[in-house]
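hiii so um. not sure if this is the right channel but i have a protein structure encoded as tokens and i wanna go backwards to a sequence. like what aa goes where. can anyone help
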């Protein structure tokens, strides 16, 4: 899928988690719901770090472009080193390493660890990166015609404000993990969810997605999971733009309302 659809699906997924938590009697504080949805929307773009033309490659100027080139080469090297007898030869690393459950867990776990051991500045950095990506994905039309510096300033300002809100007693810094020293441990959860939602979205397209790597399926270690081929669509097609994106908006709205006990 394209960047805007990925971000919408990420936000909708976290709002759905909020609705499920409320139904189970463990409602999220509203800042956790909002911040988690924005982080998940940003994280849903991150697996495309292996694609030099993806939305994320433009998000941080030369830094993100260079990072995408490095990750592409790393992913390709891992693919070549681990491919099974039935896996085809490739010329690049797109939709390989960064499109797996293992990558999602490692990145989410790494961000949780950074939030715990890195303190406030690590939390602000995690929020800044994902809020910039959320702007690039959710407000992509405005972001395309705006200065990168303005988008970065919006991300930085929003990160500072939202971190301050979360730090207030009862607002969610210690949501889910409330032992001393575990504040913000939950930040890894929307990051894992966003990456997995991205992978599921790509699995719906014609190429499928090797989500289960390194678990082998038949003669393939990079098996492209997906529904039957007649149910798949091409990225950027009318199915994505006219069906899935409106559906994500509706589901996200319903999930958010349920999470806040409005319905």
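sure thing!! here u go:
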């Amino acid at each position: 899928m394209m960047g805007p659809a990925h971000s919408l699906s990420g936000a909708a997924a976290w709002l759905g988690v909020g609705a499920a938590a409320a139904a189970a009697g463990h409602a999220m504080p509203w800042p956790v719901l909002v911040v988690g949805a924005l982080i998940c929307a940003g994280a849903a773009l991150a697996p495309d770090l292996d694609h030099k033309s993806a939305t994320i490659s433009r998000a941080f100027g030369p830094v993100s472009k260079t990072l995408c080139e490095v990750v592409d080469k790393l992913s390709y090297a891992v693919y070549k080193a681990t491919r099974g007898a039935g896996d085809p030869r490739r010329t690049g690393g797109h939709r390989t390493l960064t499109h797996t459950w293992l990558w999602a867990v490692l990145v989410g776990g790494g961000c949780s660890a950074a939030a715990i051991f890195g303190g406030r500045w690590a939390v602000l950095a995690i929020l800044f990166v994902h809020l910039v990506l959320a702007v690039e994905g959710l407000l992509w039309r405005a972001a395309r015609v705006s200065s990168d510096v303005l988008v970065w300033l919006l991300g930085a300002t929003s990160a500072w404000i939202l971190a301050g809100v979360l730090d207030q007693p009862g607002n969610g810094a210690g949501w889910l993990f409330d032992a001393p020293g575990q504040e913000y441990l939950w930040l890894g959860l929307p990051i894992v969810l966003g990456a997995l939602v991205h992978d599921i979205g790509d699995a719906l397209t014609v190429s499928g997605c090797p989500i289960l790597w390194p678990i082998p399926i038949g003669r393939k270690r990079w098996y492209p999971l997906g529904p039957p081929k007649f149910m798949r669509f091409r990225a950027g097609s009318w199915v994505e733009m006219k069906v899935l994106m409106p559906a994500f908006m509706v589901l996200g709205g319903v999930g958010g309302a349920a999470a806040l006990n409005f319905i």
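oh and The mean pLDDT is 92.
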